[in-house]
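quick one before i forget lol
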Amino acid sequence: MKPLTRAVLLVGAPQSMPDIRYATGFTAPDPVVYLQQGRKKHLVVSLLELERARRVTKGVTIWPVEALKIRREMKRTLSGWALGLLRQLNIKSVMVPPEFPVAVARNLSRAGVRVRIAASSLFPQRQVKTGEELIRIAECQKAAVQAMLAVVRHLACSHADSQGFLRTGKQLVTSEALRALINKVLLDYHCMGQGTIVAGGEQAADPHEVGFGPLRQGESIVIDIFPQHLDHGYWGDLTRTVVKGRPSAALLRLYRAVKAAHTAALSVVKAGVAASRVHAAAVSAIRRRGFKNGVAGGKTQGFIHSTGHGVGLTIHEMPPVGLRPTRLKKGNVITIEPGLYYRDIGSVRIEDLIVVTPSGWKPLAACGHFFEI
C-alpha cells in the first residue's frame, strides 16, 4: 500500500466503512477513529474492542479511549476521541472523506483543527486487488456458483401444474424458497447472501426487485447472487437468467441479444482500455439486434443500467463500467452484466465477475451459461 503523505482521518464503524477495514484489517459494528499519516496508522477503540483490535491488526497503534488525555465527558463522543488523538500526535490539519460526519468536523474546526474534504478517494489503491484479495473474492464467487447450480438443479426437477405454476412434488416453487436454498448453500461456504434476487416474469423488469411468490413455466427468472464472506468481508457477484420449459421466440431473441452484448463487452476488456468503451460495445451489440431504451406506460425498458462495476470490500465500488472514460487497470475486479428488461416479453441479465489482465481478463470462478432448463 502506498503511504499517505497527509494526515487522513476516518470516523465510523468499520463494518460499514470499507476504507477502515482495508487499512487495518479490523471490523466492528461500533464506531472507531482511524488516523493515518505516512506509514503510521492509529486506531482508537473502546475497551470492549481493545484486545481484539490488538490481535487482528498489524502495523497499527491501538489506542484505548482511556489512554487519551482528554476530559471525561469528551471520552463519550467521537469528536472527543478524534481531538484527543490529534492532540496526542500534535496534528493540526487532516484530510477527511466527503461522507465524514458534519458534527465531528464542526467540533474539530472549533478546536482549531483544519479539516479539508478530499476531492477523490482517499484509498484509490483499493481498485487494484492484491493476490490475497483475488483469492478472497474468488472464494465468494465460487460460493455463488455452487448456489446457482443448486437452484438450477432444483428447477430441473420441477414440473408445471395445470395453471403453469412450477412445483416440486406438490410444493409450489417460489422466489422465497429458491432464495432460502441459495442462502443455505452460501452459508455452507461461510458466506451470507444479502438482497439475493430470484425474480420471475414481470417482476424482473425492475433490476433490483428481489422477487416474491410462485414462479411459472415459460417465464424468464433472473437470479442474482452476491455473497459476502463472513470473515474477511469481500464479495462475489453472479447473475444468470433461466426459463423452465420452452421460452417464447421473443424471449429467446432477448436472451441472445444480451448474450451477444456480454460477449462483446468481454472482448474489449483489458488493462488500459476505457471502461466506457466496454459499455459502448455492449450497447452496440444490443442495438444491432433491434433493442433500444425507452419508456412504455411511464416505465423504463431496454438496457437501463451500466455494463458493470467494481467489486471488493463493497458490492459496488470503483471502477464503474459505464459512461465514464475511466481506464481499466491490471488487477481491477469488475462485473460484466448487460441486461434487457421488458414487462410484456420478459427480462434477461447475464453477469460474470472477472479480473482485468494486461491482455484481457480472467474469471474469478467459472460458471456455465444456460437458459432453457
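fyi Residues 131-156 form the longest helix (26 residues).
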